[in-house]
Design brief:
The structure is a single chain. By secondary structure, the chain is α/β, with parallel strands linked by helices. The chain is about 30% helix and about 20% strand. It is built from 5 helices and 12 strands. The chain has helices at about 1-20, 65-70, 115-135, 140-150, 235-260, and strands spanning about 25-30, 50-55, 75-80, 90-95, 135-140, 155, 165-170, 185-190, 195, 200-210, 215-220, 225. The strands form 2 sheets. It has a 10-stranded mixed sheet with strand order 1-3-2-4-5-12-11-10-7-8, sandwiched between helices. α1 (about 1-20) runs antiparallel to α3 and α3 (about 115-135) packs across α4.
Length: about 260
């Protein structure tokens, strides 16, 4: 696809310019990581699910998010390199972080801050691996924006009223997360950028009830989901993680059945 070709060419240039190299092996999450959230749900039996986070800052950022997956029973791994085997994992999660380089979606810098090109390339490559394999991907905050850029979308580079605030969202009824989110759900946001033009085949499923900012989307036919707000800081967060893991589990079982039929 055109946007993926553009990404591949741009990625090669950025890697060359920054001297980025894959130097660290992916490692299991530490068992001491725990979530900091408001409600607690019983852990589900997701122990056979392997979820990988593509993240160069695993020791610094989003420990509560990692912990939510662990507390649900999933096995969590991290990778700060791009040569991992997608077949070793059941789902990819892209968390929050710095702003994405605007050149990746064909724009000049008009308010983007603290750009980290190495993280951009790491996560774009990881998204490419999982999308091409048809495996589940969940992007949160920056991760959602990254997915949008991967599929050819663009971003509003600087908006107001969404950083460190609680917002009310509206949810599309036929979307994956509509089964656990109520109309007028209140969520915690921490972003100054947002989806402007949705990427190819991305369907907006959540939006701000006041200013219509895109707060969530899903792919029309791939198991790819983006959430602009922060589940790890919102009262409904554990339900989001459990719903995603249920989808991952369902798809893994379906693939196991298909693999058996092909033998």
């Amino acid at each position: 696809m055109k946007h993926r070709l553009l990404f591949s060419l741009t990625a090669g240039l950025l890697i060359s310019l920054t001297g980025f190299r894959d130097t660290h092996e992916h490692t299991p999450a530490k068992s001491s990581v725990r979530a900091a959230h408001h409600c607690r749900l019983p852990a589900d039996d997701y122990g056979e699910l392997k979820v990988i986070f593509a993240d160069r800052y695993r020791s610094r950022n989003w420990e509560s998010l990692y912990g939510m997956f662990e507390e649900a029973g999933a096995r969590v791994y991290f990778s700060d390199r791009t040569d991992f085997d997608v077949n070793d994992y059941d789902a990819l999660v892209l968390g929050g972080g710095y702003d994405i380089d605007p050149s990746l979606y064909g724009e000049e810098n008009r308010g983007s801050e603290d750009i980290d090109k190495e993280e951009d390339i790491l996560q774009l490559k990881a998204a490419e691996k999982f999308a091409e394999a048809g495996k589940p991907v969940l992007g949160i905050c920056r991760g959602a924006q990254l997915i949008n850029v991967y599929f050819g979308g663009t971003l509003n580079q600087d908006i107001s009223g969404h950083k460190g605030t609680e917002r009310t969202i509206r949810v599309r009824e036929d979307s994956l997360f509509s089964r656990v989110l109520t109309e007028g759900e209140k969520v915690v946001c921490w972003h100054h950028q947002s989806v402007k033009q949705p990427g190819d085949d991305l369907v907006v499923t959540m939006y701000d009830g006041d200013d219509l900012t895109v707060e969530g989307f899903e792919h029309a036919y791939l198991p790819v989901y983006g959430i602009q707000w922060h589940p790890e800081a919102s009262s409904c967060g554990e339900k989001i993680i459990r719903t995603f893991l249920e989808e991952v589990s369902k798809r893994k079982k379906q693939e196991t059945v298909r693999a058996g039929e092909r033998k």
